[in-house]
Design goal:
The complex is a heterodimer of chains A (369) and B (289).
Chain A (H helix, E strand, L loop, with lengths): L1 H38 L4 H13 L2 H26 L7 H16 L7 H30 L3 H20 L36 H18 L1 H11 L1 H6 L4 H28 L10 H11 L4 H25 L5 H16 L1 H24 L1
Chain B lengths: L7 H5 L7 H19 L2 H25 L4 H23 L14 E2 L2 H4 L4 H5 L2 E2 H19 L1 H11 L1 H6 L4 H25 L13 H11 L4 H24 L5 H16 L22
Antiparallel strand pairs in B: 1-2
Helix pairs in contact in B: 2-3, 2-4, 2-10, 2-11, 3-4, 3-10, 7-8, 7-12, 8-10, 11-12, 11-13, 12-13
Classes of the chains: A mainly alpha (369), B mainly alpha (289).
């Protein structure tokens, strides 16, 4: 029996671990969510049907899903990309505000340039704004070995408060005598184009999709991608191979933070059309969940962000139709992530066993020779 | 917030717990619920600690037994806490026609201190939980530095293999440390919801759990110093509220940023030297050395 298990389990495990793991986790989370809905005194089938309708049931629903997917997609990419170099960027939450503020600053300024150039400049500004937020953790990690996790986490609050400072008078970015603290509206020329007329679906989604493909290709086929992955997997070996690990850490951290800035840029230029304080609460932390669900694969991030986006979009419909409040989406999302990491254990044990087996073999060879 | 300082036990055993925020939030709600059901504030507080401990147990299971990434697990727990408390906020008060204010912690104002002119009534008339919060770091410091269990806890964070060699269960100590952090996070949550307002508000912890993590760094992982740092952070937040009403020339946002900037400076080595427990954030595998 033991032998049969030894053959069946790895094969089964392989299947579950590659593509199946997140799907299994989502299924389990949906089941857990169903119990929660029952506890709430509602019919889970009705509730999920309403959710599905709200996510993909109409043109407006699809657009809504797209709007919610865009920031999660870019944010998930920011974290997934950093992860490849062994960096955990927990600072997307703050980079959103830094990038959003920089994009807004360019977006509200009248420039004597054509519209496409104005919006491009605003996007670039947003990327740079986010990247600036990555400078401190990048340098501290590369030269002092200080964990980027705590630094990026602390910078979140600095970013959030910084943006709040900018939209309150007497800041030059604040709209005068406004009821809500906000910046003046983004000029029409600097707004991201709307993809479907009559909805708020904007080009941020396209930007995210292009970035996902670019990052996937860069990691897989370019020397830069190879250096990044080497730095993440084995910095010692990378150093011996002649890779400038410090430089690589700095570049990757800056790009990851810049992508974090683009999340805020998309929201400001595409959806809100002005800078507000606290305009995107929790998106940065959600992005960690998105990246993890995709096992930090850039193309996988597309799928997981669509799933999370659909969940959020559908929850609104569910609230109206069945009367379950929207935070159910957060709960299902969190449970799905918890299941993913709980299931992930098997994979690590498998890898550890492989490494041990190899070591034993090497030892045997060494002794035999 | 002060009580959250007890959470540093988790980092002492080498587990990074950003889920403290979530445990505090759930604790805050549990305290209100416990108070509504039992009408007894001590039971309500204990219930909040129990729930906080359970949340931490989940984190411990995922990160220690399942060896999941500690940040990811913590982030998921925070998301879960935010969602579940938002979801349960309305049913919490179901059956009541209006939102009852539950009994809050009684205010204790020692007579002798009241007689200090001016600052006496302002500084020394505090809900009982605040006085408890001042006592806790002292007790925890004693446990950590003066008991053999505390020695083990400290050792696990720095040299887990040495502890294992001494025949002591590393896993059990790690669990204990993480659960301690949950208990005190729950207590911190109770302090938040049961002190003066007696209500639960969505996301009422508003980043305090992360501020606790910052306090660890600034307080150099010593319970008393961490408590001192937490008081300073709390003062910065209190000042933020005052500053807004006073219409000060200095924007309040700068005060809110200050603790975090200080933490970064401390980590960068600009303000003294901070040494984290060596294995914080790392997975413990009994078979690798």
């Amino acid at each position: 029996v033991k032998e049969r298990r030894a053959i069946v389990l790895p094969v089964l495990g392989e299947l579950i671990l590659t593509g199946g793991r997140p799907i299994l986790a989502i299924a389990l989370a949906m089941i857990a969510g169903a119990f929660l809905i029952i506890a709430y005194g509602k019919n889970p089938i009705e509730a999920y049907a309403a959710m599905l309708e709200g996510a993909i049931g109409s043109k407006a629903a699809l657009a809504n899903t797209g709007v919610r997917t865009a920031p999660l997609l870019i944010g998930g990419l920011a974290i997934a990309f950093g992860f490849k170099a062994g960096l955990l960027n927990v600072g997307v939450e703050g980079q959103i505000y830094a990038g959003g503020a920089a994009a807004a600053a360019v977006g509200i300024t009248p420039l004597p340039v054509p519209g496409w150039l104005h919006v491009t400049l605003a996007i670039v500004a947003g990327f740079i704004g986010g990247a600036l937020w990555g400078v401190i953790p990048a340098l501290l990690k590369a030269y002092r070995g200080v964990s980027e996790i705590v630094i990026t986490l602390m910078l979140n609050y600095v970013g959030i408060q910084f943006a709040s400072l900018l939209v309150h008078e007497p800041s030059p970015l604040a709209l005068k005598d406004s009821f809500f603290p906000q910046s003046p509206n983004i000029l029409p020329a600097a707004r991201l184009p709307i993809l479907i007329k009559g909805t708020s679906l904007h080009a941020g989604l396209i930007i995210g999709l292009i970035l996902a493909i670019l990052i996937y290709l860069a990691l897989r086929y370019t020397p830069f991608g190879f250096r990044t992955k080497m730095t993440g997997q084995n910095p010692e070996a990378a150093r011996y191979a002649g890779i400038n690990v410090k430089k690589q850490i700095i570049i990757v951290m800056l790009i990851s933070a810049g992508l974090g800035g683009l999340v805020g840029t998309g929201e400001v230029l595409g959806l809100k059309w002005a800078l507000y304080d606290y305009f995107a609460v929790g998106l940065g932390y959600d992005s960690i969940a998105v990246a993890l669900m995709a096992n930090t694969n850039p193309l996988g991030v597309i799928l997981s962000s669509v799933f999370f986006g659909a969940l959020r979009a559908g929850a609104g419909k569910m609230q109206v139709a069945v009367g379950i409040e929207t935070p159910i989406a957060q709960v299902i999302q969190a449970i799905a992530v918890l299941f993913v990491i709980a299931i992930g254990f098997g994979e690590r044990v498998r890898i550890a066993n492989q490494v041990k087996k190899q070591e034993l073999e090497q030892e045997a060879v060494a002794h035999g020779g | 917030m002060l009580a959250g300082a007890g959470g540093l036990f988790t980092e002492r055993v080498g587990i990074f717990n950003i889920g403290i925020e979530g445990a505090m939030l759930i604790g805050a709600m549990a305290a209100i619920w416990g108070s509504l059901v039992t009408g007894n504030i001590i039971l309500a507080t204990l219930f909040a600690m129990l729930i906080g401990g359970l949340v931490a147990l989940l984190h411990a299971y995922l990160t220690i037994t399942r060896r999941a990434d500690q940040i990811v697990s913590g982030a998921a727990i925070n998301l879960f806490a935010l969602g579940i408390t938002n979801l349960l906020n309305a049913p919490l008060y179901a059956g009541f026609e209006y939102r009852p204010r539950v009994e809050a912690f009684p205010i204790i104002a020692p007579e002798a201190l009241q007689e200090i002119p001016f600052i006496g009534p302002i500084l020394f008339a505090q809900p009982v939980i605040v006085w408890v919060a001042f006592a806790i770091p002292l007790v925890l410091a004693w446990v950590l530095y003066r008991t053999s269990w505390g020695l083990n806890i400290r050792a696990v964070g720095d040299h887990p293999h040495a502890v294992a060699t001494a025949g002591i269960s590393v896993v059990r100590l790690k669990y204990a440390g993480v659960i301690m952090s949950g208990l005190f996070a729950g207590l911190g949550g109770a302090a938040l919801s049961l002190a003066d307002i007696g209500l639960f508000a969505p996301n009422m912890t508003a980043g305090r759990g992360f501020a606790v993590l910052a306090a660890f760094v600034v307080g150099k992982w010593n319970p008393i110093l961490v408590a001192g740092a937490a008081i300073m952070f709390g003062a910065a937040q209190a000042f933020q509220l005052r500053g807004q009403t006073l219409g000060l020339a200095i924007p309040y946002q700068l005060f809110v940023m200050l603790p975090y900037l200080l933490t970064i400076a401390a980590l960068a080595g600009l303000v003294g030297r901070t040494v984290a427990p060596k294995t914080v954030g790392k997975k413990y595998d009994p078979e690798t050395i």
